[in-house]
Amino acid sequence: MAIIKQIESLYDICGRESILQSDPGGLIPLPSWVADDVVIIGPQKSKTVYLIHSPDSRESQAFYVAATACMDKRVSIAGQLVAESSIIKILKQEKTGSKLTTKTSSASDQILFETLMKEAVAENVSDILIDNSNGRYTVKFDIDTIVRPVRGITRDEAEAMMRHFYQNIADQDVVEDSIFSFDKAQFAAGDGIWNDQKVRVRYQSKPSFPEGCDFSLRLLNLSDSAGFNRYTDLCLSPSQLALFQSMNQTESGAVLVAGITGSGKTTTIKVLIEECLQENPGIQIRTAESPPEYVIRGARQHHVGEDVSGETDVYAETVKELMRMRPDRIYIGEIRSRQTAELFSKAVLSGHGVYTTIHTDSPYEIITRLEGEGVSRDVVSSGNFINGLIYQKRLPRLCNDCKLPLDANTDLNKRLSLLKTDLSGVFTQNPEGCQSCGNSGVRGSIVCMEIVKPNRKMRNALRKKNEQEFYKYWLELGQEAGYGDAVETALYHGLKNMVKGIICPTHIERRFSGLTPLLLKEQTHTWSEDNGFSIPLV
User: From 144's CA, which of 4, 432, 437, 512 has a CA 20 to 30 Å away?
Assistant: First the structure.
């Protein structure tokens, strides 16, 4: 029998207007020690009810007492439902208007947190989100960039679980405050072992209006067997891979990786650094991260603390300290302030190879963002300051065991005809999924990447703030140097994987926008309305 994990699923069966018949004023009042694990719910003027019990109470005395009470009252049991203890608590709260007042985490709450973490690690969850909506708390899993609700919990369970993590698991050198608070935004990070895998958890809380708090837990698997470690793990095209490798071989200059949160920027940096260290044994690469997300094998990693007072840019201070230690290359976790951007610039100009990440929407916009943080275009466009600009999006992979052929008679198919290419290899997500993908229709994710390595003409275009000229020269350079499809954009490479049956076209449109002539013109380099792509997708 399936276990009910969300209150709405329970109401779909029993009806939202049903009342708690096991309450003291109900048709079948039960002792409080019974009602902790077993409740009875049904319509107000009906002798047909549902008996709802927690997973471990089916053979318990409490279940026997509840079932016997139904028989004594000559009440018909329409069904026996198994619900998580959290759902029974939420049901009692909503039907009686009671409010739980627990302020300390109990052993059961710690077990709930451990169970949640084991389930998340087993399913390769990247983020656990606990969202509050009108007092209801829902746990959601981000799996392969798709967020789905998995269970409901009470406010007190949410608070107790997060307090347990913050005060018992989080590294006390990383937490912003020594005491957990449900009423203020807090950051923390800590490591634990679940399912025999070491996982780093990055915690962020944020109070929500009008009451309550939302939580986000980023899960970073630190086990050697987890994550991407080699160039080939990134699933780049052969031309992209060759460009990626050549960019990483240069000793000086900056490599900047851009994308939204969750796009895999840090993973890409991890691959770049680990490959560089394997190809160049003996060089020293130091990192400044807040906090370190992965174990980068061979690198000397340094945690950057937070100055709650805001009086000191701790990130910038750490970068200064690292530069005095004479590393060959530096990884600055993120350009997050003008002072950090200034030190990034000084590190590059002093001859260091520098890796960093930044939040922008394209390779060209990386330069605009740097300028906004105080790094002049004259500096950015000088000499070999920029070694590589990378922009990426992460999209879910279709499950090979249940993906569906493209339906020819849809509006989507009409939009895909703009590509002017063979669509026989295009597949779509199965909404019901299968056992292989946990009934999600997707399994794993893939990065769609745009890589740019500027030459002199492109640097001049940057200096002049001429984006059109910048990409024109990039195409010319690609043709001269034989870069192939590496000169194309993230959208192009998403479409390339789509026609191979790896990515669903619906996910392409969700991440990039609906396919139109304007989108294809603006976000690819070689598409025309008359001829499609000059660099074929297939």
Answer: 4
Contacts by 375-384 with C-beta closer than 8 Å and gap 24+?
375/341, 375/342, 375/344, 375/345, 377/462, 377/463, 377/465, 378/463, 379/345, 379/349, 380/462, 381/459, 381/460, 381/462, 381/463, 382/459, 384/250, 384/252, 384/253
Q: Whole-angstrom Cα distance, residue 459 to residue 382?
A: 7
- Quick: pLDDT tens for 451-490: 999 999 999 999 999 999 999 999 999 989 899 999 999 9
Strand ranges (DSSP E) for 106-228? 127-133, 136-143, 146-153, 186-194, 197-207, 213-221
SS3 content of the chain, % helix, strand, coil (to 5): 35, 25, 40
- Is it the case that residue 49 has pLDDT exceeding 80? yes
List strand residue ranges (DSSP E) for 107-185, in order. Answer: 127-133, 136-143, 146-153
The residues that bridge with 253 in the sheet, in sequence order, are: 353
Cβ neighbours of 175 (radius 10 Å):
20
Q: Which CATH number fits domain 107-221: 3.30.450.90, 3.40.50.800, 3.40.50.2300, 3.40.50.300?
A: 3.30.450.90
Domain ranges of the chain: 3-96, 107-221, 231-395+452-487, 400-440+489-538
3-state secondary structure at position 220: strand
CB atoms within 10 A of CB 242: 17
Handedness of CA 452, 457, 459, 465 (dihedral sign): negative
Identify whether the C-beta of residue 188 lies closer than 8 Å to the C-beta of residue 165.
Answer: yes
Say whether pLDDT at 102 is over 80: no
Contact between 416 and 423 (Cβ < 8 Å): yes
Other beta carbons within 10 Å of 79: 12
Which distant-in-sequence residues (6+ apart) come within 8 Å of 466 by Cβ? none
Lowest mean pLDDT among 92-106, 405-419, 424-438, 492-506: 92-106
What's 201's DSSP letter? E
User: How far apart are alpha carbons 127 and 147 in whole angstroms?
Assistant: 9
- Cβ(77)–Cβ(51) below 8 Å: yes
- Under a CB-based contact definition with an 8 Å cutoff, are residues 395 and 145 in contact? yes
Q: Could you tell me whether strands 329-332 and 427-428 are parallel, antiparallel, or unpaired per DSSP bridges?
A: unpaired
The tokens for 158 are 């949410």
Measure the CA–CA gap between 190 and 173, rounded to whole angstroms: 10
| pLDDT value at residue 226 | 52
Between the alpha carbon of residue 473 and those of residues 128, 455, 466, 470, the distances in Å are: 43, 8, 11, 5
* Superfamily for domain range 231-395+452-487: P-loop containing nucleotide triphosphate hydrolases (3.40.50.300)
* Chain position carrying tokens 């003996």: 282
CA dihedral 45, 50, 51, 54 (to 10 degrees): -130
Residue 255: enclosing H or E segment and its boundaries?
strand 253-258
Collapse the DSSP code of 394 into the 3-class scheme (helix H, G, I; strand E, B; otherwise coil) and give the result. strand
What global pTM score does this model have? 0.80
